[in-house]
Design goal:
It contains 22 helices and 7 strands. The chain has 489 residues and is mostly helical. Helix 4 packs parallel to helix 7 (142-160), helix 7 runs parallel beside helix 9 (185-201) and helix 14 (283-295) crosses helix 17 (342-353). The longest helix is centred in the C-terminal third of the chain and has 27 residues, at 360-386.
Length: 489
């Protein structure tokens, strides 16, 4: 008997499967504390923006402006914190909404290129890739950049197809979003694949006519330039650091030592292609398997040649691989840099998968791949939420502190180094203290104090403070000690 009534391959079934994946991410982003370093670092920057009401300059610490990124993601996160309160779910929600926007654009382009079925499978492939699934519930800037670049490239494709309104204008809106989310990199990630596609397809004349270049350029300038000017006027030196340092020196110098906010992420040249398999897992490997399958037969090779002649496929190829190609010659890279290309690779993989889905074994394998990353990472997230002491996060330590008699973050000191998560979860009330200053402070204390130390410092401190220290919590990063001063006679 036919099995079609039981299989979730209709648009309705695939829609609910996509909703389930997004719902799983909502669950984990609500229950899992932030781990060092990226998430709490950006969350604390957004918290400071919300607390201070300074919507021009993001602040890395109360005294150090954050010149590393434009403010769009911080605006969204700070607004969410103001609206819903300071907690993890509120800080992460804007990234989830940005990924919803990216998914919608992916569905829109896939539907235009093929069918409803292709659209839903493209959305499922994208949502179940490792990097998009993680990014959808993390405090990052990359989902906002990817939303802007995806909006521009999808708008370009649809405008050239004869839909200049509203897509011609949305092309420039996407550029403005990218410039406010990450900076001039957005122009490269849109201009590189867009130019190659238009030149190869011979559609550049149509693009010139379809896009409102003068009005759109003025719109971008009106949306973007006021903030860049205000940021430089408020904290002089921003433009030099951001435009020259972040966008030139970081790119050409693998050992760039000018980073004010951390360490350069130095990797061997070409590592970005390994990151691509990681970011697109498991679908990047599945896509390679499909390619090998096609190359192994004459019929498959004929289909490949026919596909490569298709202008839609060419757009997906150049847009999907542009970030990896661009960052192949960069030494300072992260896997998140690949997010802007994944919507187009998802459609490309779904297109290759389409002719095979009518076979039951292939369909079942595809559905298993759809569920692999969301179920595995969600299970791991729930496990860590139930055992937070395994996380490299200050959240469980501070939660344990606040249950103690007299426990207060104002009495909490981190020896030598304080993680970003401690700043975020203590609302910047915890303090860092040098080893040379700790013992004098303890000898002068008249009330209980709390000290968070690395395991390597535990023996030294216990010997120095003798029997007046009590271990209150053991975490993956730090051990919480309570110091009880002598009772006055």
């Amino acid at each position: 008997m036919p099995d079609s009534p039981r299989r979730p391959t209709t648009g309705f079934g695939l829609f609910w499967l996509l909703c389930a994946i997004l719902g799983l991410r909502l669950l984990t982003m609500a229950v899992l504390p932030m781990s060092d370093t990226t998430e709490p670092r950006y969350a604390e920057t957004a918290r400071l923006m919300a607390e201070r009401g300074d919507w021009i300059t993001p602040w890395f610490t109360p005294d150090l402006p954050f010149w590393g990124k434009p403010p769009l993601s911080f605006w969204a996160q700070a607004a969410s914190l103001k609206l819903f309160g300071v907690h993890d779910f509120a800080a992460r929600l804007p990234s989830w909404l940005a990924m919803i926007g990216i998914l919608w654009l992916t569905l829109r382009l896939a539907r235009q290129q093929g069918s409803e079925r292709l659209a839903w499978w493209s959305g499922l492939v994208l949502a179940s890739m490792a990097l998009p699934f993680i990014s959808a519930g993390a405090v990052l800037t990359d989902p906002f950049l990817a939303f802007g670049t995806t909006l521009s490239l999808v708008s370009l494709a649809l405008a050239v197809r004869g839909r200049p309104i509203p897509w011609g204008w949305l092309f420039f809106v996407g550029l403005a979003i990218g410039l406010l989310a990450k900076g001039p990199l957005a122009l490269v990630l849109v201009g590189l694949p867009g130019s190659v596609w238009l030149l190869c397809s011979g559609r550049w004349r149509r693009a010139l006519a379809a896009l409102p270049w003068k009005g759109g350029s003025l719109l971008v300038a009106a949306l973007v330039l006021p903030w860049y000017a205000a940021a430089e006027l408020k904290t002089p030196g921003f433009l030099d650091y951001f435009l020259v340092g972040e966008h030139f020196r970081r790119f050409v110098d693998p050992g760039w030592a000018g980073d004010l906010y951390g360490n350069a992420h130095r990797q061997p040249y070409g590592t970005i292609w390994l990151f691509l398999l990681w970011a697109s897992f498991p679908w990047g490997i599945a896509g390679l398997a499909l390619l090998v399958h096609r190359l192994c037969s004459q019929t498959g090779r004929t289909r490949l040649r026919k596909a490569l002649a298709d202008e839609d496929v060419r757009l997906l190829l150049v847009a999907g691989f542009a970030p990896a190609v661009f960052f192949s010659v960069a030494g300072n890279i992260l896997w998140t840099y690949l997010l802007p290309g994944l919507p187009f690779l998802a459609i490309l993989i779904a297109r290759g998968l389409q002719p095979l889905l009518d076979a039951t074994p292939v369909r079942r394998t595809a559905l298993a791949l759809v569920l692999a990353v969301p179920l595995t990472l969600s299970a791991a997230g729930v496990h860590l939420a139930l055992h937070p002491y395994k996380l490299k996060s200050a959240a469980p330590l501070i939660a344990a502190l606040e249950t103690l008699p007299g426990g207060s973050v104002e009495r909490l000191y981190y020896l030598d180094d304080m993680p970003f998560s401690a700043r975020y979860y203590s609302r910047d009330a915890a303090r860092r203290i040098e080893r040379a200053d700790l013992l004098p402070m303890l000898t002068q204390a008249t009330e209980p104090l709390f000290v968070a130390v690395r395991r390597r410092d535990l023996d030294w401190l216990e010997q120095a403070a003798a029997h007046r220290l009590t271990v209150r919590f053991r975490g993956a990063q730090h051990i919480l000690l309570q110091y009880n001063p002598p009772t006055p006679h």
